[in-house]
Amino acid sequence: MSRIGKQPIPIPDKVSAQISGQHVTVKGPKGTLEREIPQPIEVKQEGETLVVKPTNDSRVGRQRHGLCRTLVANMVDGVSQGFQKRLQIQGVGYRAQAQGKKLTLNVGYSQPVEIEMPAGIDVVVENRNTEVIVSGIDKEVVGNIAAQIRAVRPPEPYKGKGIRYFDEQVRRKAGKTGK
Fold first, then answer.
1. Residues contacting 21, CB < 8 A, separation 6+
2. Would you say 81 and 71 are in contact if contact means Cβ atoms under 8 Å apart?
C-alpha cells in the first residue's frame, strides 16, 4: 500500500469538498477545481479530512493510490493558496513583456514570440523584464505553461543564455580553447 496514499488530506477553513461517485469538486477562496478520479480509487470525507483508498487490492489500485491522493491534495492546496512558477531570462537583449493574457518574449529570434495564457492563469513580468512569474490554482496547468515558456529558448550550456526556472542549475561547458 502507498505510504503517501495512506495520509489523510486536511481541509483548511474556507475550503469545501464535494464528492459524488468518482467526481471530486473542491471550492475555496481562489476558485473551484474539479477532477474525475479513476475507477479502483474512492475518496471519502471524514470530518475535516479527505481520505483516499483503493476499492480493491488490485495492481492498478495500488499503482494509482498515491497518485490520486496527491492530485486531490494539489486541488485543496490550489484553491486555498495557489501555485506559482518563476522563470528567469538571461541574455543580452532578452526580455519579456506581459499584456493582459498575452506574454511576448524577445529572446533572439527575428520576430517576438507570443504565448496566450489559458483561463485561470496569470503572468507577471518583474525585475527589469527578466523575471516571469506564472501563477494559478491548477498545478498541472501552471507547470505546463512554464514548460512552454522555457521551451521557447532553453538555456544553452556555453554562455548560459536562455529561459530557465528560477532555481535551475545549468551545467556549463568549456568553449573552444585558444592558442
1. none
2. no
What cell numbers appear for 60 in the block?
A: 492498478
Please give the single-letter amino acid code of residue 101: K
Separation in Å, CA 22 to CA 1, 54, 175: 20, 12, 55
pLDDT digits (tens, 9 = 90+) for 116-125: 999 999 999 9
| Cα–Cα nearest to 67, from 116, 128, 140, 118 | 140
Q: Which residues of 24-36 are buried (b: 16+ CB within 10 A; e: fewer)?
A: bebebebeebebe
Q: Which amino acid is at 174?
A: A
| 167: its cell numbers | 532555481
Cβ contacts of 138-142, under 8 Å, gap ≥ 24: 138/33, 138/78, 138/83, 139/74, 139/77, 139/78, 139/83, 140/74, 142/83, 142/84, 142/85
Ordered by where they begin, the domains of the chain are 3-80 (3.90.930.12), 83-165 (3.90.930.12)
How far, in Å, CA of 123 to CA of 159, rounded?
27
pLDDT in tens, 11-28: 999 999 999 999 999 999
Contact 99, 115 (CB under 8 A): no
